Give the backbone structure.
Amino acid sequence: MPDEEWERFLRESADGVPDAPKEPSARARDVARRLSQEPVRAEAWRAYSPVRPRRKKAWAVAGLLAALALLVVALDPGRVVGWSDGGGETGGPLAAESTRPDQPPAAEAGRPTLDEPFKGSPAARWANGTAGITVPAAKATGWMSTAQVEQALGRTRDFLAAAGLDPEVLRGGRPEKAIARINPHQRDVQDYLTTALRAPSEENDPLLLFSRFDTTRARLVGQVVKTRGRLTYREGERGALQVTADVTFVYPVVRATAGSDEVARTIVRRELVLNWDDPAKVISEPGTFSLVSYNVDITNGGCGPATGYFIPTFGTDQAAAGAAGGPEVDPYDRSTSMAERMQEAEDEECGTATRS
């Protein structure tokens, strides 16, 4: 490596670079905020090994999981009125989300049932599964050709499906397909994955990336998970294709007890930033990406010590848990960026969802 390249590497490692991500709020669980610099040549003795991130505890008494988990209280639909999402006439399916909306979605009347688990929720108008994740048109970016960008975007969506939609994973299974997409040379992330799935804790919580329910407590209603969100991309450092995924998942659930028919919903919004790296500059394996950061906002996922599973509450339990107070938050409001959402919640222990 030329002397000037090595000096630049040492300088940037110590000082950072101008466009490095900003430190997230106390509610952000940004596991890989700043990737370590990589050599120009991918030599094995300098495999991918980013610096361990700085983390702050984000678990709170009313259901903050990782970045922010907002425990849902029972909703009176009449409380939320006068909103419009610009997505078309009320009651019809929404067009795909191509840009960030400028206001929250409109209120929906009714309460969920086993036959209509999304009734009373904006998600009733959302698409099912991966159909709700908008993938932009591909164009050559960084080290990738148009065809390679298209493939990377498709694989990113596949990762989101494996992490947040796979039926086995939702039932508490190990997310093997999703893990297989993560660069195995990104040592700190691999350590997090191993620890989080073996011994979940506030610091190492698998719910940051994966949706899993404790099936002894709750089970999904039907086979449909509603989603809404989009992928965006740009050229990242060292010519990487940097993809940002901002997607909200809505899971209808009932108690695990046989014959239960009270439907609640767990709502999860995840924002992931990942790099599809140039293998000539960063040690990686074909078909894998490196995580740059990830934030999560979870409504009605449970509270208390980390278990590695969502544990939603129902009915009067929700009202009792919500009595702790906290700012009101609309879990369906995608007009606010995740950075803003995390900043707003920085000094709060919990929040109260205005609807479920």
Summary: The chain has a mean pLDDT of 78. The helical segments are 3-15, 146-164, 167-170, 176-179, 187-198, 315-322, 338-344.
